[in-house]
Every structure is written in C-alpha cells, then in structure tokens.
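hey
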C-alpha cells in the first residue's frame, strides 16, 4: 500500500449505470503521476453492476442499500484510506493528469481543497462551466450566493476536512452546492479556471427536475442566512434562485407558497419563505410590465 501522503481515494457513486460506469472507473485508473484507491459505491443497483466489479482487484467495491448518491458518497468517504479524496460520478470522466495537477496546485497555494471548471455535455452541446470569465483564486462562501461554481466531480481535498463536512443525505437537490458552501466555510477552497473533467448530463438527471430544488432551497438559505441577509446582492440572489426554479414548474410560485404553510417547518422559516414568495410575485409583475412596455415601444 502506498504511503498515506501519496494516496488519493477516488469515490465513485453509481446507481443503475452498469453500461457506462466502466468509463468513469477507467478514467480514474488512468490517472498519471499519483497513487489511487478507487472506491466504487453501488447505491443498491438492480442492473447487475456487482457482477462486473465485485471481484475486480483494482477497485474497492461497496454494495450498499439504495439511499441516494449522497449516502453512497459518504460511505466512500468513510472507506477512504488516502490523505486526499476526489469525487467522480459514474457517467463522467477526468483528464489524465487531473489529480496530479490538482495535488500540485494544493501544495503551491496551501489550500485545503481545490476545484476547477469543466466541460458540460448536454447531448451534442458542449459548454465550459463556470463561464470563462471566472478567474483562478480562493472561493469565499459569499461567492456561492448567486449559484454553485463547484462541480463535485472536480473537487480534490483533504480527507479529514471532507469527513468533517460530508454530504447532506436529506437534500433532494443542490447537494453539491450545499457541500461546496460548507466546504468553503470549513477551509480554503481554491478554484482553478483550467477544466479538468467532462460532465455528461443524462435524461434522468435531477438538474432537469426543478420541483426538487424548491424543497432544498430553504435549507440552503437557512445555512447561509447571515450572508443572504447581509447584502442586497444576497437578497436578490435568493429571489433569483426561486424565480428560476418556479419558472420551470407548472404551478409557478404556488409550490413555494405551499411550502410556506408546511406545519413541519418552524414558524420563522415559513414566514421568511412567504415573504420571499411575496417579493417574488412583485418581481414577476415588474418584469411582466417592463416586457409589455418594451413591446409597446417597439410597435410605435
């Protein structure tokens, strides 16, 4: 076994991905210039994934009950032997020097964890995310108020820090955003503008289900409430998140209102969500009237 200092544990959660997970594993095994421990965390797949990996000596295969990707990642975190942990989803890949380059970057900057940009593949469309305007440097928690800049697949960090932060298994969406915000608060998180991963959106991706985001947004807000309340930028950022999600739902803002009456939530949370929903309605009207006024001017 390599010395702990040199070993990087790679956590790969998978669920019903027998046909494509081999690509991700091969990408992790092909990393140059580093020693790796590949941990394949099978989240209760029923497609025969275990038949391919249960006896493969190149990976540590964990066959788990079906509890979601966050629970699978946490199981991998617990099984990690290295000083460093990296994450890779079952349908994504890395550049061959991703881990080597990021480890060198951590040592050069003194950061506790590093992340990077990536190429997002949505069918035939390929885009760079975050945008090329984002430059390398430390990510502060306030930098994440307007949205997540951190893809889990690009993270490399100290095992002890990642074990401290862990993934919230109760969230139905935005788990990576929540993890990134808490990671940035717990240690120094460095962003590298050079892309290191290729992320492939699948048809069953939760990013295509905005209704799941509505359930997670209040948790995200509460954990960073001080930052959101402390500036106009934070307040507008919160309203923008709700606007984008409700715009993608059939019932628009009504889902948010129903959430505000949920008796299982503390009263202060319900009141806060209701106030934000009211502010959102005002913004909706303002945008509507602005668009109508613009149309009238163009028709003159």
């Amino acid at each position: 076994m390599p010395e702990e200092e040199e070993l990087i544990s790679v956590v790969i959660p998978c669920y019903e991905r027998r046909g494509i997970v081999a690509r991700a594993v091969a990408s992790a095994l092909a990393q140059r210039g580093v020693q790796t421990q590949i941990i394949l965390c099978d989240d209760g797949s029923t497609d025969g994934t275990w038949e391919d990996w249960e006896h493969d000596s190149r990976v540590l295969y964990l066959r788990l009950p079906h509890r979601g990707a966050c629970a699978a990642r946490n199981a991998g975190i617990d099984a990690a032997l290295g000083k460093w942990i990296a994450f890779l989803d079952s349908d994504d890949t890395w550049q061959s020097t991703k881990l080597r380059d990021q480890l060198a970057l951590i040592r050069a900057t003194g950061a506790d964890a590093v992340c990077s940009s990536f190429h997002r593949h949505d069918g035939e469309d390929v885009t760079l995310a975050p945008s090329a305007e984002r430059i390398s440097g430390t990510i502060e928690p306030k930098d994440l108020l307007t949205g997540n800049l951190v893809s889990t697949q690009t993270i490399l960090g100290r095992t002890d820090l990642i074990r401290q932060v862990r993934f919230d298994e109760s969230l139905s969406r935005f788990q990576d955003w929540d993890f990134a915000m808490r990671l940035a608060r717990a240690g120094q998180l460095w962003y590298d503008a050079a892309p290191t991963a290729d992320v492939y959106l699948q048809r069953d991706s939760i990013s295509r289900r905005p209704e799941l985001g509505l359930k997670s947004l209040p948790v995200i807000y509460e954990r960073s409430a001080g930052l959101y309340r402390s500036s106009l930028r934070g307040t507008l950022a919160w309203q923008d998140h709700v606007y984008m999600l409700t715009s993608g739902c059939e019932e628009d803002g009504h889902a948010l209102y129903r959430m505000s009456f949920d008796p299982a939530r503390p009263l202060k949370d319900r009141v806060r969500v209701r106030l934000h929903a009211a502010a959102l309605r005002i913004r909706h009207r303002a945008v509507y009237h602005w668009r109508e006024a613009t149309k009238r001017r163009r028709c003159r």
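Residues 267-299 form the longest helix (33 residues). Residues 227 and 234 are 7 Å apart (CA to CA).
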